[in-house]
Fold:
Amino acid sequence: MVDALRDLTEAVEAVRLRHGPLPAVESLGMREIADETSYAERSGLDAPFALAHTLGGMTLAAVNDYVSTFAEAFTTEHVPVYGHLVLARAALEASTVSWWLSEPGIARDDRIKRALSEFIYAAVEEWKLKLLANGRENVKDWIAHATNLGWDVTDQVGNPWVRDSRGNPRVDGVSRPAPAAAIRDLLVDDLTSKIGKLQWSRLSAVTHVTFFGTRGALSLGEAVPGPAGGLVTVPLGTDAIAVYLQTICIMKALRQAAAARFDLMGWTDEGWNAAVGEAARHEKGMLDAIRTARPEAISELESERTESS
Structure:
């Protein structure tokens, strides 16, 4: 499992190193860059598409780092009980944002709207935390870039975005996708599947240390009666089958996010395709292990799972 995750994360980084920072000449990304001047003049941004592409690359780097750290957590003397689950949650959420920012084939306006939504949110956070002396002006500048393109910046109910607005800013109605549904879409092809909601809810519960989340590490079937008052003692630890299940999810999510990025930038090559095939083979091996040991654990994952990214 560790080797498979290492191989995949190294393959993602290798693609970037092979191709450099720019989109390939005939790529979708380069076609967007060809319209840079028009969008720059109208928006007031120097290089709006380059900014959007850079943001997509940064988010993919974050996904890759979370997945890599997940793998390395199982090479230490003490196996994690909860830490790897926090990393799995981060990897899944970051994968949805990375895929969303780099989704190939969307309209040019949508690419810029998605990026502006993220940059405005970041500027608002810096303003709230007083990290910049000109935080308020910085937010106004980012909103002005959207306004110059004819797009309103609003909150979730359509009111103009202000400092205390909740959620993510919507640029002409566009903001990052809801995590549960987006995770589902990365993992399966079934819009009725509950896997996104299950993964998001359970992993969020671990992050927020609710009993719903923390009790997952309790081996209730191995309870030992205590000496008094009906109390029992149960082991606290990490279950290999549960780890395999999380690994399958984060591997596929990383593959999907990376595939979107490489498709947009024109970086899909033989090396990447070979890495995808090897990762899919490892995922199948883990699925077989789960199916043998605990078949009920994969009913949601396997319902409409596709083997290719």
Q: What stands out?
A: Strands lie at 153-154, 170-171, 224-225, 232-233. The chain has 13 helices and four strands. The CA atoms of residues 74 and 197 lie 26 Å apart. The two ends are 19 Å apart (CA to CA).
